[in-house]
Amino acid sequence: MEFRIADTFTDSLARLTGEEQKLVKTTAFDLQMNPVNPGMQLHRIEQSKDKHFWSVRVNRDLRLIIHRTEASFLLCYVAHHDQAYRWAERRKLEVHPTTGAAQWVEIRERVEEIVAPSPPASAGAMPSPKRALFSDRPDNELLAYGVPADWLADVRSVTDDDELLSLADHLPAEAAEALLELATGGRPAFAMAAVAGTSPFDHPDAQRRFRVMHDVEELGRALDFPWDKWTIFLHPAQRQWVERSYSGPARIAGSAGTGKTIVALHRAVFLARSQPDNRVLLTTFSDTLAHALHDKLRRLISNQPRLAERLEVLSLNAISQRLYQAQVGPVRVASEDVLRELMQSAWGECAAKLNGMKFSPSFLFSEWEEMVDAWQIDRWESYRDIKRLGRKTRLSESQRAALWQVFEHMQRKLAGRGLRTWAGLFTQLASAQARRVAAGQAPAFDHVVVDEAQDLSVAQLRFLSALAGGAPNGLFFAGDLGQRIFQQPFSWKSLGVDVRGRSRTLHINYRTSHQIRIQADRLLGPEVSDVDGNSEERTGTVSVFNGPTPIIRLFKNEDQEVHAVADWLRARIAEGLPVRDMAVFVRADAQLDRARAAADLAGIAYTVLDGRLAALTAMPGTAPDALNIATMHLAKGLEFRAVAVMACDDEVLPLQERIESVADKADLEEVYNTERHLLYVACTRARDWLLVTSVEPGSEFLQDLQDINSAT
């Protein structure tokens, strides 16, 4: 007999209190050790049409629903007595007649009418009948998508997106996803037909919702890491991008929640497994995200320790320092504060010689950081001729000549102190890799997989190109141009990384509700393009589940806002949401006090995240039972059931300091773009509930989010 758990069980377990979860886990462990333990109080659920459903007593009121046959023992659901019984009475476990996958099928006559009645027609007007969305689809096609036979008539009656989203909540995931893709003009692949003689639980679609537990340790890990985090689950349709052989650099794109990180994780594991003599690096731009990737990878390959020996997870800064010390020698990297101090000194020494030309300190530093240092320009002729992509302020040759005097002084000061910038370190390391290749030495890594690739710097990409860019399957990137918040745009192709023809966009969102995704997408255009002309189409993305409508509210003052957010947090707790599954984001440190005030007023313990704590929060099972408070820049890689985005005020979004630092009005476009991306990132950390607040008049970005309510 195989012992399994269903996603419906872990979903329902996550909704219980901490003490209730401990009781349920103890019962689950006992059942796994001895499913026929006479001490267990099992009762057949007589009102269910599936006679294999039984209830197990956890305590006086909690009931665990199991599905038991001679070959299978399945943990299905857990809740208080009446709710648990209702769940079992409304479902049956079936093998789909076309695909052969095991799936839950809701009992049609036990489900209340799911299509909302049409509003009454006005007097004297005859409503024009709507055309059903799937009227031209034959039964065999709908069945091939995994639609249960009992629900074919309901599928055929759907006439608009709202009805389809309501229906999708009652269908197996593979069927809902296919129908949503069809409705948006896509061409979903048919579900894979099961091989004759194989278990219906072995079908790829069945493995999305049912998992075999081989021992107590595996069951413990599964219950500690709630299924709804989908942190290591690979959708069957995404496997082709994981296992494909690429002749050159490849990139997976997609909006927030489409599973890019999961594809990157599985790609790294696939390469390590299929190339047993090669070394694989899984990397990203920050230590915080690298820690989160490491934890997810550990759980993905926890039973394959030998695989981990050839698969390293490190941030780009961490791996570059290690390789530099091994291949070049000791290095001291200048901090940003030191760089600004040196730039101020260099300007002071040169200002008198510049014929009255004046440049703001912020412009000087950004020109150094984004042009001279990023591209490692060390000659006047190179600076004079470089195309200033991403820098909108035009400079005459005489202005460039004046600036170059300052930058030469800056470079001498760095050399005099024995310091390097990160860009300098990556560039020299790229040269070291080229020398190793020319000498016939083995590369440090044969394959590199990069997550959050939209925030790579020029020098980082140059290093990656030298490290593995010349080999088939050498470089694999995952990212979303709509979430670029740290770097100026630049041409990848100019650095030898051309992903044209090897770039794919994911369109199914598994993490964010339809309502939140639709609202957040209004912050961005329907299409985002990079400098090389690669486009990411965003209009075809669909979410696979519904949720409450996001709330966007403006208040007369901060006190009103704090009280409203506190009330909203208390309401989520009253609905049974664990505090650790909630977060409050603000634009910058200056707004953190408003978030703290809301938590204090709500009587909720909270943690203000820094880089280290944000990494822990991204690891299911490690987060403390407290509300998470953080700035928007730390939101990357995190996800929560409920998110409040506070203090979205005028002069906060976009941040007034950034606007005032712009030397030319033309540069404002980039500031506005990255500030929009920041708000988008913060909003899309929410799975089910989203609240966005500000003090009047509010950020101009909120005008893009419809249905704004002003508090009286």
Structure description:
It is a single chain. This protein has about 700 residues and is α/β, with parallel strands linked by helices. It has 25 helices and 25 strands. The strands form 6 sheets. A 7-stranded parallel beta sheet has the order 21-22-20-23-24-19-25, with helices on both faces. It is globular, with a radius of gyration of 28 Å.
In a few lines, what is going on in this structure?
This protein is an alpha/beta fold and 712 residues long.
Compute the CA-based radius of gyration: 28 Å
- Mean model confidence by pLDDT: 85
Report helical residue fraction: 25-40%
Distance between the termini: 62 Å
Major sheet: arrangement of strands: 21-22-20-23-24-19-25
Question: Which helices and strands appear, and what pairs or packs with what?
Answer:
Blueprint: E1 2-6, H1 7-14, H2 18-33, E2 42-44, E3 53-57, E4 62-68, E5 72-80, H3 81-89, E6 91-95, E7 102-106, H4 139-144, H5 152-156, H6 161-168, H7 173-183, E8 210-212, H8 216-224, H9 239-243, E9 250-254, H10 260-274, E10 280-284, H11 287-300, H12 305-308, E11 311-315, H13 316-327, H14 336-350, H15 361-373, H16 380-385, H17 397-416, H18 422-438, E12 447-450, H19 458-468, E13 475-479, E14 503-506, E15 508-509, H20 514-521, E16 527-529, E17 535-537, E18 542-543, E19 551-555, H21 558-574, E20 582-586, H22 592-602, E21 606-608, H23 611-617, E22 627-631, E23 640-645, H24 656-661, H25 668-683, E24 686-695, E25 709-710
Parallel strand pairs: 1-5, 9-13, 9-14, 10-11, 10-12, 12-13, 15-18, 19-24, 19-25, 20-22, 20-23, 21-22, 23-24
Antiparallel strand pairs: 1-8, 2-3, 3-4, 4-5, 6-7, 16-17
